[in-house]
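Because discrete structure vocabularies remain unfamiliar, we first show an illustrative case, written as a sequence plus integers encoding its fold.
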Amino acid sequence: MSDSEQLPEILKLIDILDGLEALIDTAPNDDVEDILEEAWLQISDTFPEDFKAATQHDAGAEGLRRYLKVKAFFENPSERSISAAELEEYYRSYTAAEEDEESTDFFPEEPS
């Protein structure tokens, strides 16, 4: 399946993850939060491998959308525009995640 064929599905999955993040933030107790987090992980595990690798340190719904926008720009800059501020925000988010010693790897790296 090509990237353009996967995009609508990926966008739907990101919307679902966004909803789960909101539910996690308002979970009434730790047990419910754990269940919602497990659902989040299982859904996010359906992303293509290259997508998971690229968003490993910024895997929240906002970070996933940011990555898609930057990816689309670099794949076809003449048809997809992005502002300098958006590109800088992506870069800051990416470098901050790399520098954060306590960052959570939502998508664990596969053993080589």
The radius of gyration is 15 Å.
